[in-house]
Amino acid sequence: MSDPAAHTQLVPPSSVVLVSGGSRGLGLAIVTDLLESGVKVAAFARTVTPELAKLADAHPDRSHVGSVDVTDLAAAQAFVRAAEERLGPIDGVVNNAAVGQDSLHVHTATADIARIIETNLTAPLQLTRLTVRRMLAQGLRGRIVNITSICAQRGFPGLVAYSATKGGMDAATRSLARELGGRVLVNAVAPGFFASEMSAVLGQTQLDQIVRRTPTGHLTEPEEVVPVVRMLLREQTNINGQVIVVDGAASI
Amino acid sequence: MKELSRAQIRDLMGEVLKNQGKVLPDDDAADLREVGFRSLDFSELALRVEDETGEELNFDAPGLRRIATVGDVLDFLVELQRQ
Question: Which CATH number fits domain A12-246: 3.40.220.10, 3.40.50.720, 1.10.540.10, 3.60.15.10?
Fold first, then answer.
């Protein structure tokens, strides 16, 4: 069943955005940026950090934060309902919550593989389903940004399960964009490794080597990813079903 | 749980290297790069220890990156069995 009107109406900028994993790192930077841009933000994470609580205090009328484990669908559902009661209908989603990995596949516990897949793939698919159902039921148009990773496109040892989940989200991004027929724009942003992540696991020699191989001469910082996320949520671009890599061309 | 001694793990390490035509030096301070013992060889050794003990030995990569000598390998696997 085709809907000719879907092709003529533009998707407006998101005005109420749900951010998962918004308590630190890139998630916190996204929440900060959106609030500073005047957007209403509902953010959850397993733990509400003092930084996120402070942000919420600074923007009491435009924010709603809570402690929710993204794998707890009932809790996520309750959070979404509470956020919508307070801020209005959600018309933007940033699937950012994820757990990392730093272990060779053969030495990763089976329970850890299951946890990585549940958190990084199953949970964002469920959250997307939940929020898109609400958007459609309320006659809204919306935008979804999935935070994936360069690991989805390039191989890295120690990140097998993690890479699989991020590749899964890249694939879901494309299919969702098709499935939602332009009524909801769905894109992914794939950052390269952040300096903070890399320095935690690599020595200075290895870090220097990676930087030398990066044409822009530095590793990605969360502040460099945030404007891309904001653009996908707020600007009129006709970008849909894409994965935008932000890594200084380290991977090309 | 069955636990392999440091000497038994050393014997298994010697077998891993022997299969590649390499020799495990007697000196525990020997550098793994000079011995030619790479990260996948460490995986093979850990899996051989698992076979002997019947228990999975799972660990994160950062622990592996600190290993530089033959003695480090043996200490790591002895300790891992106790966790």
Answer: 3.40.50.720
For position B1, what pLDDT does the model report? 65
Q: Which residues pair with A45 in a beta bridge?
A: A67
A65 CB-side CA count, 13 A:
26
Pick the catalytic residue from A20, A162, A222, A248: A162
pTM, whole model, 2 decimals?
Answer: 0.91
pLDDT at B14 over 70: yes
Taking Cα atoms as reference points, which of B57, B69, B59, B67 lies closest to residue B4?
A: B57
Place of tokens 């001469």: A217
What ipTM did this prediction achieve?
0.83
Q: Break chain B into its structural domains and give their ranges.
A: 6-82
Contact B64 A104 (CB under 8 A): yes
Q: How far is B21 from chain A (nearest CA, A)?
A: 24
φ/ψ bin of A158: left (φ > 0), alpha (ψ from -120 to 50), beta (otherwise): left
Q: Which residues contact A111 (CB under 8 A, 6 or more apart)?
A: none
**Positions of chain A with pLDDT under 50:** none
Among A31, A110, A109, A118, smallest CA distance to A71 is for A118
Alpha helices for chain B (secondary structure H): 6-18, 32-35, 39-53, 61-65, 70-82
Catalytic annotation present for A74: no
- Looking at CATH, the fold of the domain delimited by B6-82 is given as 1.10.1200
Q: Compute φ and ψ for A42, nearest 5 degrees.
A: -110, 115
Q: State how far the Cα of A113 lies from the Cα of A111, in Å rounded to an integer.
A: 5
Distance CA A63, CA A73 (A): 21
Radius of gyration (Cα) for chain A, nearest Å? 18
Give B15-59 pLDDT, tens digit per residue. 999 999 999 999 999 999 999 999 899 999 999 999 999 999 999
